[in-house]
Amino acid sequence: MARAKATKRKVRQGPKERVRVLITRARIQRRIQALAKEIRRDFPHEPLHLVSVLKGGVFFLTDLARNLTGKVSFDFIAVSSYGQDTHSSGQVRLTRDLDSSIEGRTVIVVEDILDTGMTLQYLLRLFQHRNPKHLRVAVLLDKPARRIAAVRADYVGFTIPNEFAVGYGLDYSERYRNLPYVGALTLGAKKKRPEK
Ligand code: IMP
Ligand code: MG
Predict the structure, then answer these.
(1) Is the shortest distance between the CB of 117 and ligand 1 below 6 Å?
(2) Could you tell me which CATH number the domain at 25-81+91-162 has?
């Protein structure tokens, strides 16, 4: 079957880069179905406005949206981190704002991964000032080992160890986003962990 083959495939795109499957496509899909039910249970009668962070959050957003019943709309925002090392600088800059106002709306921020928490801390502060009715966070992956900012997600797909994740939206130098599963990327023989 095509799906089983895809999740077993070993991907090697750059010299010495290796991707090992961490979370299969089937597990991701099952978990997203459950998260969609949980979100709808928390807000049974509210139109939900999903706000995704480009580009990594888009795969999660589309699957989540497909599994949500009731009224759903969405919008996109883009940010970038200053400097090479977001771990130490922690500076986040807005590069694309939302198309529409979130005032009075039930907003779910949809992100690929919660790592240091600097990105979500920045976005939550920004959105809070715009007076949404509710503001919640859904992340596909949570990597608590590297947390700096005191941010937590309301809905978490999977908690993962301190590895560099790629696939299902997550990239390494803009590559691997299209993998239908989440993998762990290692570089070279010494299993060096790539920088963000
Ligand atoms: P944070 O601000 O450190 O929480 O990181 C948020 C952003 O860093 C995510 O939206 C990703 O774009 C990127 N990022 C963090 N960890 C990883 C990873 O393991 N793989 C790929 N991108 C990551
Ligand atoms: Mg991202």
Answers:
(1) yes
(2) 3.40.50.2020
